[in-house]
Amino acid sequence: MGQLLKLDEQAAASYTAGHLVARDFGALTEAVEHTAAALALTATERDRSGGTAWTERQVLRDSGLLKLAVPAAFGGPETPWPTIYKIIRRFAEVDSSLAHLFGFQHLQVASVALFGNPEQKAFYLGKTVSENWFWGNATNGLDTRATLVWRDGKDGTDGHYELNGIKSFCSGATGSDMLNITAPRSADPADRVFLSIPTDRSGVKVLDDWDNLGQRQTDSGSVTFDKVRVEAHEVLGPPGTSGTPRATLRTLVSQLILIEIYIGNAQGALLNAWQYTHEQGRPWFTSGVARAIDDPFTQQHYGDLRIALRAAIALAEDAAARLQKAWERGDALTAAERGELAVAIYETKIAAARAALDITAKIFEVMGARATAAKYGFDRFWRNVRVHTLHDSLDYKLKDVGQWVLTGEVPTPSIYS
Which DSSP string do the residues of 266-293 spell out, in sequence order? Predict the structure, then answer.
C-alpha cells in the first residue's frame, strides 16, 4: 500500500500482520469478524462525535451474539466464558465503546443466571433469546441514591415496590430493552437488591449526560426513577456480596470484561502502529537504514510492546479458563476456590492495565510526530484505557494480591472484589 488508509478504513481492512494476532472463534468466527469489520468502519469519526451509536448497536443486535452467555436450558448457546472474553477483546481492538456494551450485555445475562430463581431465569433468559433483548444496567454499587420502598396494596390489590432516585454510570441503558438495577430496600444501604425491569417503564428516564474523554459511546450516563412501579417478582435478590461463593462470581465476571477491554485497546493500538510504521514511518536520520522497520531502536520498542501485550493476554486467558471452571462448579464452589480465582484475576487486571496504558502511549514513540495528527485518531486507544482503568481502584487490587502473597488471606467478596 502506498498511501496510509484513513483509520476507519484501515481498521476495517484485514491486517497483513497475521503473525501477530489469532482470529479463531470457532463456529462464531464469521459472525465475529463481520461484526468487527462493521464496527470499525466509522469508529474514529464516532469517537469524535460521542453520543449513542444507534447503527452499531443494531449491528450487535443483528449479529446473533447477544445471547452467547444464556445457558442451554433456557434456549441459549451457553458459549464458554473464554470465548466470550476473546470476542470482547476483538471488538475492543476496533471499537472500545461497543465492546463495552457487548461485554456488559453478557454481565447482565450472567447476573440473572446467578441471582434469579428458576421462574425468573426461565422468563428473562428465555426472552433474551426469543426477543433478542439488549440489556442495560443501573447497578453502580457506590451510588446509593436510588431507593426501593414497599407500598401496600389498596382495596385488596397486591402490594408492590416503588423505585425512586438516580443512578450514575449506567452503561448501555440508552436504547436497551431491559435494565438491571440495584437499590437498597430498607434504611440499611447494605440491604441491596437486584431487580430487572423494562427500560421503557413509566417513570424511568435515561439521561444523555455522558461526555467523557474516552469510551465515548458507552452511554454510561445517568438514569432517574420517579415513582417507578416494581413488582415483587421482578426483584431477583441480593447481588451476591453476602451470598454464596457462586453468587459472588458476578464481580469477577465483570472484572475480566474490563481486562479484555484494556487488552483489546492495547492490541488495536499496536496493530495500527504496525501498519503506520510500515507505510509512513521514517527511520532516524543517523540510523543508517532506509526503512523505519529496520531502525534498531524502533525494533527494540516494538519488541518491548509485544512482550507486554503477550504477557497480559496469557494472564487473561489463564484467568478466563479458571473462571469457566469456577462457573461450572456451581453451588459446589467454595469460598477458598473463589478467593484464589479473585487473586488470579486481580493479578491479571493490574498487569493488563499497566501494559495497556504503556502500549497505547508508547505507540507514538515508534510512529513519530506526524502520527499525532487528529485525522488518525490514534489517541483514542489511550483515552479509552485511561477512562476504563479508573473504574475501580487498582491500588486496592494490588494490596489484595500482596496480602495474599504474605498471609494467604484471599480478598473478601464485595461489589468490586
Answer: HHHHHHHHHHHHHHT----TTS--SSGG
Do the beta carbons of residue 281 and residue 368 sit within 8 Å?
Answer: yes
Q: Is 283 exposed, middle or buried (0-12, 13-18, 19+ CB in 10 A)?
A: middle
**What domains appear along the chain, each with residue ranges and CATH number?**
7-134 (1.10.540.10), 137-237 (2.40.110.10), 249-407 (1.20.140.10)
**Cell (9 digits) for 91:** 471488538
Of 179, 177, 160, 161, whose CA–CA distance to 223 is shortest?
179
Query: What is the CB neighbour count within 10 angstroms for residue 301?
Result: 17
Q: What is the pLDDT of residue 23?
A: 86
pLDDT tens per residue, range 248-278: 999 999 999 999 999 999 999 999 999 999 9
- CA–CA gap between residue 358 and residue 360 (Å, rounded): 6
pTM comes to 0.92
For the chain, the residue count is: 417
Q: What's the angle, vertex CA 97, arms to CA 94 and CA 98, rounded to 5?
A: 75
CA angle 189, 192, 198 (to 5 degrees): 130
CA–CA dist 63, 368 (Å, integer) = 38
> How many Cβ atoms are within 10 Å of 165's Cβ, its own excluded?
18
Only one residue has cell 494476532, namely 21
